[in-house]
Amino acid sequence: MSEKPTHDALDFDAIAKKALSDMPPETRFGEKDAEVIRKNADALLPLRDAFVKGFYDVLFAHEPTRAVFEEGERAEREKTLAQFYERVIRGPHDGAFFAWLAFVGPVHVVRGVTNPMMLAMLGYLVEFVRERSRALPDHEALVAAFTRLAATMGAIIAYGYEMAWKKALENVVGIPPALAERAAHEEATRLFPLRSHGRA
Ligand code: HEM
User: Fold this and answer.
1) Is residue 148 a contact partner of residue 30, using CB atoms and an 8 Å limit?
2) Atom number in ligand 1 closest to CA 69
3) d(Cα 88, Cα 146) in Å, to the nearest integer?
4) What is the pLDDT of residues 88-145, one digit of tens each?
5) In the chain, where are the structural domains located?
6) CATH 1.10.443.10: does it fit domain 11-175?
7) How far is the CA of 108 from the centre of ligand 1 (A)?
8) Which of 7, 38, 64, 146 gets the most CB atoms within 10 Å of its CB?
């Protein structure tokens, strides 16, 4: 990344912590998930290139996702995704890891990648591991670990996306985040009165 205009304006550590704290612990990536991934690292690391190739084959075969990329960009993107995969497998899965995930989300906002695109590819990650780890004794624990990892990343990415929007509203239009939240809540209550848990 050469430009970093929005990075200083968002607190990635706080975004990750808030997203994690909203998740019930059973659904969240935890230490035993990190352990089972690290324990199987020797089997998972050699799958890196297949993971990366499959990931971009899927994105380039679909017009809306292919349109995100510039001519000749694929090799560079494959390199960063390979690094991502290694980081996920090797860890450490600590606070810095989750703060980094909170940074990866908004990087995509800049390029017009939508949350549906991001969440879809988290599904690809889980399916990839499910298919490729069938022969391993820890298969089920690995699938559970990657399912929780995908849920956790999705939570952080979605929250980071929301924060990026709020920051943009604040910086560009001068609307403070608390006001944007209140307006969104009030407007949603007006538009969807029957869905506000009994409060008409
Ligand atoms: C599971 C979902 C995804 C993960 C984990 C992921 C991961 C990453 C990572 C680690 C980077 C490098 C960030 C940096 O350090 O600068 C990156 C950049 C990028 N990704 Fe993804 N990605 C995902 C989904 C997608 C999708 C769905 C698209 C497009 C449809 C996409 C397009 C890009 C582009 C264009 C960049 C370059 C951003 C820039 O201009 O620097 N990614 N991604």
Assistant:
1) yes
2) 35
3) 10
4) 999 999 999 999 988 888 889 889 999 999 999 999 999 999 999 999 999 999 999 9
5) 11-175
6) no
7) 6
8) 146
